[in-house]
Request: fold
Amino acid sequence: MKKFIVEKENQNTRLDSYLSLKNKDISRTMIQKLIDEENILVNDKKTKASYKVLEGDIVILNEVKPKEISLKAQDIPLDILYEDKDIIVVNKPKGLVVHPANGNPDGTLVNAIMSICKESLSGIGGQIRPGIVHRLDKDTSGVIIIAKNDLAHINLSNQIKNREVKKTYIALVRGVVKENEATIDMPIGRSTKDRKKMEVTKNGKQAITHIKVLERFKNYTLLEVKIETGRTHQIRVHLSQIGYPIVGDYTYSNGKNEFGVVGQCLHAKSLKFKHPITNKEMFIQSELPQYFEEILEKLRRENGRY
Reply:
C-alpha cells in the first residue's frame, strides 16, 4: 500500500495524472484500471480517474500483484535481432501467432519468448506475461519488440502512443500503383458485417499510411509502407480500400493464390525507436523472408530484369 497527501502545487490535477507523476513505474492505463477496480481511494472513498485532487486529499494506492497465468514455455526457434537485459527484438516468421488466444492456446511467440527470457518479462496489465509492446498479424513477418520489464514496457508504449516509433514495411500488392508516393488518411474501425474484420468507416479511429513505390511489375507493385498510427490490420485495409490489395491477403482481397502464398506478402522491415532505458537511438531491420524474395525474383524474370 502507498499513501499520498496532495500538495498545494498539485491540486486540480486529474487523479490518474497525479498518480502517474508519483509512480513512474506504473502506467497511466494501469492506474486507471486500479481506480476502476477500487484499488485506489481518495479520503477512503472510491472515485473516478477524472476526479480533480485537492490540497490535503489522502490518496491510498493498493498495488495488486500480477496474477500467474498458465502459459508454458516452448522451445520454438526464433531469429533474435537484438537482446539485452531490458528488451528483445525478434524477426517474427509468417505463420507465427504473437500471443495465445482462442484457437491458438500455445505454439505462439509468447511461448517461445518465455523459453528464452525465463522470469525476465514485464507484468503490465496485471498478469505475468511477456511484454508484447506491439503486435503483428499471424501472417505478417518481421521486426517486433518485447519488453523484459515494466519500465521498458511503459516507455516503449508511450513512444508508440506519441508516434515516436518509426515502422517501415515492405508490401507486394496487386495492380500497378501510378503515384510514386501517396498518403492514405482514412479512419478505420471494426466491420459491422464481420467482427473479425476491420474496415474504413467514418466512425473509426484516425489511421494514416504512407506508401512509396520501390518497383513496378506488369500486374504488381512493390511498396515501402510507413505508418503513423497502428490500427488493427491498418496497412491491409488501407491498400485494399484504394484498390491495391496485398498479395496473399485472403481476408481483404478476392482470395487469389497466384504464387501459392499462404498469408500476405507483408513484412515489417525495420523499427526506429529510443532504447527505453538508455535513451539510445535504435534502428533494427531484417531481411525479407525467402518466400517473398522468390516471388520477387519470379516477377523480375517475367519482366525481363534478369
